Amino acid sequence: MKIKTKKAKNFLGKLPWFLAEHAFLTCLVLFFVSLIFGTLLFYKYNILAQRVKPGELSQSFLLKEDVYQEVLNVWQKEEEKFQEADFREYPNPFQD
C-alpha cells in the first residue's frame, strides 16, 4: 500500500485551519477527550487499586548491616568534601 504524500501533506496543511474555523466544536471535543482520559485514570488508580488486596509478604524485610554502614560511610565522605568546599578560596578571574 503506497501512501500518497501529497494528499496527506495537503490534509495536514488544512487541518489547523479547519480546527480554527470550528473552535467551539474543537474545544468541546478536547474537553470530552480529557474528561474520558481523566475518568479512566481515576478508575484505574483509585477504584481498581481499592479492589485489589495487597498480598502478604512472604519474607520479612532484612537490612544488611554491612551494606548499610558502607552507604553511610560514602555519604559521610561526600558530606565532608562538601563542607571543605565552603572554606576553600577561589581566585577571582575578573580581577586585574
Secondary structure tally: strands = 0
First-last Cα distance: 71 Å
Structural class: mainly alpha
Radius of gyration: 30 Å
Percent range for helical residues? Answer: over 70%
Keywords: Membrane, Transmembrane, Transmembrane helix
Transmembrane segments: 23-43
Question: How do the strands and helices of this protein lay out in sequence?
Answer:
Blueprint (H helix, E strand, L loop, with lengths): L4 H17 L1 H29 L13 H23 L9
How would you characterize this protein structure?
The protein is mainly alpha-helical. The chain has one domain (5-54, 62-87). Helix content is 72%, strand content 0%. The protein is built from three helices and no strands. It has helices spanning 5-21, 23-51, 65-87. The mean pLDDT is 87.
Give short descriptive properties of this protein.
single chain; 96 residues; mainly alpha; 3 helices; flat; transmembrane; transmembrane helix; membrane
Short description:
The chain is mainly alpha-helical. Helices cover 72% and strands 0% of the residues. The longest helix has 29 residues, at 23-51.
